[in-house]
Amino acid sequence: MTAVEEPGIVVEQLDNGVAVVLFNRPAKLNALSSAVLAELVVAFRQLGHDPEVRSVVLSGRGKAFSSGGDLIELHPLLSQAGVNGARLHMRAFHEAITAIRNIPIPVVAAVNGACAGAGISVALACDLVIAAEDTVFHPSFTRAGLIPDLGALHLWTRAVGPHRAKEMAFFGEPISAAEALASGVVGHVTSEGTVLEDGIEFARRLAEGPTAAYQMIKDVINATDQASLDSVFHLESYAQSAAFLTGEADEGVSAFRDRRAPMFGHPS
Fold first, then answer.
1. In degrees, to the nearest 5, what angle opens at C-alpha 44 toward C-alphas 8 and 240?
2. 94: nearest Cα among 172, 184, 32
3. CATH number, position 99
4. Contact 121/149 with Cβ under 8 angstroms?
5. Could you list the residue range(s) of the whole structural domain that residue 133 is in?
6. pLDDT (tens digit, 9 = 90+) per residue, 153-184?
7. In total, how many domains does the chain have?
8. Closest CA to 35 of 92, 111, 88, 120
9. For helices 162-171 and 152-160, what crossing angle results, to 10°?
10. Helix or strand or coil: residue 230?
11. Distance from C-alpha of 118 to C-alpha of 132, rounded to nearest angstrom
12. Which residues contact 61 (CB under 8 A, 6 or more apart)?
């Protein structure tokens, strides 16, 4: 008997106008496969057309919000597609960020546990970001020989400024919830184990508010940087596609798979 794979995204609509969207791959720390990103797009587009939903909470099941891109799937997918094929895949992945930003109601990211790589991009695409006090952000793209993607270089720069964003991108060092709060990556830090409930409370308050005004606020603020984000998506799609074709990406992903430190720039 063939096992039926569970969906990578689950949606629960509460009775107070709040919808909860959860990454549903806890065994893989909610890694973002191409299928999960596509499901995320569908979920947000459907919720955006549901008149009963007035706010959304996005979080992850298990011990992580998201560990970032599923490199075991994405490395062969993108490295074998050639630059143009990989670029088209990247532009499809960008739709997840666009769907979150374009939904006409507020979205609260309730970040639990580990949040790595593209998971940070997804969180920062939301309108409000709260994190549990034990959350650790891992901007670890370069450890896989890759560049930050899903609009990360734009979203990070908007949150923390260009110099700190470059430091995050270059070194990929872990960032605690307290550091994330101080630097502007998140707006609130809450108790361990209650972040989803606290996110739902934020969303409940928003659901009780003036939704039309919230939509206009969101649209105006997002419009101030949309052209810049679009430019980053365009440049990033080529740059990341090229990065996946390098020996550095091969080494980075191999090191990730073997759970060892990558050996960039060292002769074999």
1. 70
2. 32
3. 3.90.226.10
4. yes
5. 9-193+210-258
6. 999 999 999 999 999 999 999 999 999 999 99
7. 1
8. 92
9. 130
10. helix
11. 18
12. 10, 22, 23, 24, 25, 26, 30
